[in-house]
């Protein structure tokens, strides 16, 4: 019989059948529903409440524009938050808060277990914008006492704010100290490079590329002086030959026969020389002015020659009575005086000849010095490409050191300014938007949620009980079930005979069912409202 009912039931229930089951089994459904809900919801009132305090901390950007002050703490905010969180959740920090607020007083656990419990009670939630950037974060702490939860959250918030300031200041100061050390190293390297360049320039003074133009000018001037000295030597040698000719002519005049009026016959030679000199003077005067050195020198030479001619002529006239014994005696007294005590022309010529020889010697020495100087400057010019390459190599190292030093100096100044900004708390910082809240309702257990869970459990339990009773019941409750069970057609039906007692019993049962349903529903609604209001 039961097997037949199961086979019929496998085809599914019709709405009429379900309604019929609800009428028959409403007590089997309502009582387990109420008991299941009451068990789950009632258990929530025996669990220890946990209050959760929360605070919102905003990540505020630096107050100074980045165009003026560039921060030297540029690490990722999320990474820095993780580092700060690890530092705050360290054993030392948490033990300090536990001892200060007397957390977990009723537990007999050791300090490490208290620290682990507090870490579980703390929660950090990041707040991101549309660009997935961290703009704020929430700090939560759960405790059995709402005031304790608020105080612990306040302590954690202060730790986050102070730790962020300290971390940024330490990183900024560390960056500045590092740049200062690097700048000192770069300064020493730059000083070494400067010393090398200075020593190179002092060792090769006059051979440097920057002195090329000066060396060329000096060499050109020395070559001009050499040409002038060579011209002066040629002129001095000509003067020497001229003076030597005068000496020879003077000696020849002394031994030459005289004319009828007592004048020596060799004087025409001096006259020819004077004419020659005057011709040269006329030629130079046509090309140069009277202030030209050659013109002035030639005039002086003509004047000296005329004076010598006059002195020779006068001297020969005064000595016409005496004849020298030999030419050697005349040459042995070149510096003899005239009768009036003045030097003789021969002595003057010898004096000029000695001065001319001294001048030639001095100019030859000057020419040798000029040649040595010219050779020295030519050597400098030949060494200039080599020195230029060497100086370029040294300057390249110096330029690199100078650029590195300038770059480090700029970075050090910027880092020092950024450190000052961090010390004045003008950089990126954490600011409390919502102060730690005082929770009025416990975060756990959520009794309204437990009410919903209890309702689901009661429904499942009631449905299970009804299904169980239906599976165990082998009675037939409808004509259709009888027709399906007996293949023979029904000839006649016996109507249900209901007496007054049965009718009264059915009504009471119906009212009791509705009353039970009302009690269950009102109890669940009242429990939900109470859970919402009292939490």
Structure write-up:
- The protein is 70% helix and 6% strand.
- The protein is an alpha+beta fold and 535 residues long.
- The protein has 3 domains: 2-47 and 445-534, no CATH class; 51-185 and 413-434, EIF_2_alpha (Alpha-Beta Plaits, 2-Layer Sandwich); 211-399.
- Helix 8 (267-287) packs antiparallel against helix 9, helix 9 (293-318) runs antiparallel to helix 11 (345-423) and helix 12 runs antiparallel to helix 14 (500-534).
- The longest helix is centred in the last third of the chain and has 79 residues, at 345-423.
Task: State the separation between the terminal residues, measured CA to CA.
Answer: 52 Å
Kindly estimate the percentage of residues that lie in beta strands according to DSSP: 5-15%
Overall geometric form: rod-shaped
Helical/strand content category: alpha+beta
Low-pLDDT ranges: 1-11, 257-265, 320-336
Which percent bin holds the helix content? 55-70%
Mean pLDDT: 78
Number of domains: 3
Strand order of the largest sheet: 2-3-1-4
């Amino acid at each position: 019989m039961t097997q037949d009912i199961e086979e019929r039931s496998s085809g599914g229930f019709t709405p009429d059948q379900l309604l019929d089951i609800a009428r028959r089994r409403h007590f089997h459904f309502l009582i387990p529903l109420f008991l299941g809900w009451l068990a789950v919801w009632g258990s929530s009132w025996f669990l220890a409440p946990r209050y959760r305090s929360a605070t919102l901390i905003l990540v505020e950007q630096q107050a100074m524009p980045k165009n003026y002050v560039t921060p030297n703490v540029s690490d990722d905010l999320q990474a820095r938050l993780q580092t700060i969180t690890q530092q705050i959740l360290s054993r030392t920090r948490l033990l300090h808060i536990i001892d200060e607020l007397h957390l977990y007083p009723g537990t007999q656990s050791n300090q490490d277990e208290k620290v682990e419990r507090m870490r579980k009670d703390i929660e950090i939630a990041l707040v991101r914008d549309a660009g997935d950037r961290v703009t704020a974060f929430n700090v939560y702490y759960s405790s059995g006492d709402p005031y304790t939860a608020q105080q612990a959250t306040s302590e954690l918030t202060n730790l986050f704010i102070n730790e962020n300031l300290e971390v940024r200041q330490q990183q900024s100061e560390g960056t500045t100290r590092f740049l200062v050390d690097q700048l000192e190293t770069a300064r020493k390297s730059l000083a070494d490079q400067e010393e090398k360049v200075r020593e190179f320039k002092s060792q090769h003074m006059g051979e440097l590329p920057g002195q090329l133009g000066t060396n060329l000018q000096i060499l050109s001037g020395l070559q001009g002086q050499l040409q002038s000295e060579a011209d002066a030597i040629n002129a001095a040698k000509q003067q020497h030959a001229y003076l030597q000719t005068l000496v020879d002519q003077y000696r020849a005049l002394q031994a030459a026969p005289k004319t009828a009026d007592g004048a020596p016959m060799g004087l025409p030679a001096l006259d020819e020389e004077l004419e020659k000199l005057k011709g040269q003077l006329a030629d130079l005067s046509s090309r140069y002015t009277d202030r030209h050195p050659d013109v002035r020198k030639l005039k002086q030479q003509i004047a000296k020659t005329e004076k010598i001619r006059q002195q020779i002529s006068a001297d020969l006239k005064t000595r016409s009575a005496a004849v020298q014994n030999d030419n050697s005696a005349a040459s042995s007294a070149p510096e003899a005086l005239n009768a009036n005590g003045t030097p003789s022309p021969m002595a003057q010529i010898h004096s000029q000849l000695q001065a001319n020889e001294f001048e030639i010697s001095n100019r030859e020495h000057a020419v040798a010095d000029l040649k040595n100087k010219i050779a020295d400057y030519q050597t400098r010019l030949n060494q200039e490409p080599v020195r230029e390459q060497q100086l370029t190599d040294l300057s390249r190292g110096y330029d690199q050191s100078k650029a590195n030093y300038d770059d480090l100096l700029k970075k050090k100044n910027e880092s020092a300014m950024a450190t000052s900004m961090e010390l004045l708390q003008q950089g990126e910082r954490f600011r409390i938007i919502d102060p730690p809240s005082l929770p009025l309702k416990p975060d756990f257990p959520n009794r309204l949620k437990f009410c919903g869970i209890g309702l689901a459990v009661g429904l499942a339990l009631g449905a299970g009980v009804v299904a169980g009773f239906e599976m165990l019941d082998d009675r037939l409750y409808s004509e259709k079930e009888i027709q399906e069970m007996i293949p023979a057609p029904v000839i006649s039906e016996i109507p249900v005979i209901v007496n007054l007692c049965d009718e009264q019993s059915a009504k009471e049962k119906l009212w009791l069912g509705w009353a039970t349903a009302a009690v269950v529903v009102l109890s669940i609604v009242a429990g939900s409202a109470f859970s919402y209001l009292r939490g």
